[in-house]
Amino acid sequence: MRPWIILSAFAFSSGCASISQPPQPPIASDFNSEDFRQRLAVKQNAALKAAAASGSEVKRLFIVGVEMHHGIFLTSLTPYPSDIGLPYHVMPDFVNDDMQAKFLSAMSQEAMSKHVGQRLMCECVGVEWSFHGTNRFFVRQAELRWEQSAPAGDVPDPYS
For residue 42, is it within any domain? Predict the structure, then answer.
């Protein structure tokens, strides 16, 4: 007699080889619903308050950009620690409305048309944090300035 037949018979008789229920389909979520967005906003605000209260302020140099769907974003000139030396993008959160207005006025069409060929740099003091896999930066202080754009691949490390 073959050993696998004996083992199979033992497994079925002892209940070790019982067949489990098939997995259930995931619960359907409407990610565009107002209810979902409100729950997500509450969670994000709670996470932001916890990050802001941590007291672990850092100073970073960013290039400021704007994207039509997501708004303002910041690109770090120093590589993300776990990456292979690539710059990383973060979404800013502002300490108050005046700080946000400062960024928005600098990124307006009127201001940008005066600085063609330049990039907006931000020396920011704030808290790095993340929410659902998105890198974020809580901007407490910011110094904005326009600089001549560097050629591609010629971005110096400002902290070396």
Answer: no
